[in-house]
Amino acid sequence: NYCISLSLFSLGFYASVFLTQTPEHILTKTNNRTEILCELKKEHAGVYWYRWSQERQHFEFLVYSNTLGKATYGTNVSQDKFRVHEVRSQSSYSLHISHLHPSDNGTYYCSVSQSSQLLLGSGTRLTVVDVLPLPPKTIQTPVSKKPVPWTTKSKAASRKG
């Protein structure tokens, strides 16, 4: 177990040298849209995006975008829902997800292929809900302002004299 943990830690550290994924968690409403950012630190041929569904215990390929901006989608993956945008100047890719629905819940990973293996980002957990759990609005009572005494120039001058 120790060896497995150590190798997973090393692999995670190795992946972080290549890419940084943000944010860690997104909580948003149904029908909204959202964005996940993946910044790359080394040369690459393109970026893969995957989704892990805890509910279905399924790791699903969503889309691959190469450096020329050509996207290849997974089976039954909607091009209207998932779009990849590349910002070459910053060596970053962002996954835009629209028409959000609770069925989109899961952990999303950006990934690059390196030395015959896939290096995954840290993951972004997406939770889509019908109503955001916002705190109830409190009614604030207006703070009463006491009049502040002030001195005119003429009074100040008379005091000095």
Task: Explain this structure.
This protein has 161 residues and is α+β, with helices and mostly antiparallel strands. The chain has a domain of 110 residues: Immunoglobulin-like. Helices cover 16% and strands 42% of the residues. It has 2 helices and 11 strands. The strands form 2 sheets. Strands 2, 4, 5, 6, 9, 10 and 11 form a 7-stranded mixed β-sheet that branches. Strands 1-3-8-7 form a 4-stranded antiparallel β-sheet. GO terms for molecular function: coreceptor activity; MHC class I protein binding. It is found in: Membrane. InterPro entries: CD8B, Ig-like_dom, Ig-like_dom_sf, Ig-like_fold, Ig_sub, Ig_V-set.
What's the SSE pattern? HEEEEEEEEEEEH
**In percent terms, what proportion of residues is strand?**
35-45%
Q: What coarse outline follows from CA principal-axis ratios?
A: elongated
CATH superfamily of one domain: Immunoglobulins
Mean pLDDT: 81
GO cellular component, one term: cell surface
Main location: membrane
GO molecular function, one term: coreceptor activity
Keywords: Adaptive immunity, Disulfide bond, Glycoprotein, Immunity, Immunoglobulin domain, Membrane, Signal, Transmembrane, Transmembrane helix
